[in-house]
Amino acid sequence: MHNKPLLEGEGLYNLIPQRDPIVMVDTFFCADETSAETGLRVQSGCLFCEGGLLREPGMIEHVAQSAAAFAGYAPYTRGEQPKLGFIGEVKKFKISRLPRVGESLHTTLRVMGEAAGVTLIAAETRVDDEVLATCQMKIFIKNEE
Amino acid sequence: MEKNELIAKINETLAEEFEVEVSDITPEANIKETLQLDSLSLVDMVALIESEFGVKIKGAEMVQVQTFQALYDFIAERV
Description:
The complex is a heterodimer.
Chain A: E1 7-8, E2 27-31, E3 35-41, E4 49-50, E5 53-54, H1 56-77, E6 85-95, E7 104-115, E8 118-127, E9 130-141
Antiparallel strand pairs in A: 1-2, 2-3, 3-7, 4-5, 6-9, 7-8, 8-9
Chain B: H1 3-18, H2 31-35, H3 42-53, H4 59-64, H5 68-76
Helix pairs in contact in B: 1-3
């Protein structure tokens, strides 16, 4: 697990289309062709927080934006604009515990397969050594014509 | 693993994942039609083949793999 950020804060704006107050990933730790790691410190003012906890939609949004950042990183390193991406499906989403305000999420993404322009990604979100959530997500990246 | 064993394992794996009867899977049958794969679920089969058999199917190769017999041959040549 990587702990030294490659990009953080508004640096992530180079990778994802979301902007405050809807940004749900604040750190990009690393990436290669088949995997990436991202992070998020849960803030009390977060739109997806309720009762001191980051609720389920926020967890899904964090993973979705992590996948978007992963997809946007390769174009970014080539000096290109991130391509538009769509989530085709979210499945097998399992949450064992909702994160508390102040906790730092660390999410690992791994490409499980690619076919017909669709990429299947497995995601695992941890706080320290505790796995809080896992899921699979299909993303489709639109190539400009 | 003998090819017959491999074929049986492929059939069982696909039948369980895509919720079809093993008897529906025949060598000459079309994969997409039999497993009811669409553009989104095709990647599920690619990921499953890679995780279960360690064989990666690239996009261009997928075009050649239309029937189960073609899939058996593709995997058998690479395991």
